[in-house]
Amino acid sequence: MPTVAELLERMLDGVFNEPDPQRRAAVIAEVFSEDVVFVDDEQAVTGRDALAATVTGLLAQGPGFVFTPAGPFRGVGDLGMRPWSLGPPGAAPVLGGLDVAQVVDGRIARLWTVLDR
User: Fold this and answer.
1) pLDDT in tens, 20-64
2) Domains of the chain
3) Which of 56, 58, 80, 86 would disulfide-bridge 4, Cβ 3.0–4.6 Å?
4) Which distant-in-sequence residues (6+ apart) come within 8 Å of 87 by Cβ?
5) Is the pTM for the entire model greater than 0.90?
């Protein structure tokens, strides 16, 4: 069973940095529970399809931008946190934040994204 750290890493690379919707959907099915809840400053969505649509919208806002880890993984039990930054490859980030994930039965069941201000 993957660790919380492994799931967050796979999520960043295979979901939030994956431009192909079919490949992204396959990783979402692998990493997230069927009834995953995703919460950020703008919305709360439930389910893999809603998460996929949310990610598609986020990627459309910054074509070519990439998410990169911006600090070490921290966690306890079934909770994990990882800071990230977003921006053009090789350039200064335009946004940063923190993902907090709760894992249930080897998949991310809840994901909160807190943006840096």
Assistant:
1) 999 999 999 999 999 999 999 999 999 999 999 999 999 999 889
2) 4-115 (3.10.450.50)
3) 80
4) 62, 65, 66, 93, 94, 95
5) yes
